[in-house]
Description:
Number of strands: 0
Strand content: under 5%
Largest sheet: none
Radius of gyration: 20 Å
Amino acid sequence: MTEPRARAARQKVRGLLYAHGDDPDPLPETVRVLDEIVTDIIIETCHAASRHATLNNRQKVKLEDFKFVVSKDERLLGRMIELIGMEKELKKARKVFDTDEGKVGLERGGPGRKRKRATKEKGEDAEDMGEADDGMEDTMFGAFTSFAE
Length: 149
């Protein structure tokens, strides 16, 4: 059993159950059990990908490690590749519509830059991941939970 902080969002599980025909207000026990199953599958897959990366003399886990781990399940691999493709298309579409309008002071040496340095000096985490990590949790959650049909 995993730690409570590692659990998937309960509301997502409730929504998933409702989307697949369950009651709008499912039993708490059902939500808890499905949450445990999904979380355990995700954690086991991450550990297996980590082992695969280690066997290939790498410290960082790459996307190819996850592809290798799920390669035995054709449906899961297909869904994973489909979601990765959709994510790339969305990034491309965002770049097309992303303009510099309304971004005042972010040019080199502008007020936005000074503010970022000031927060760093205070000891706060000023690192901006941008869109690099947006939606990855949902993507992985969707890949593992889309087979409940």
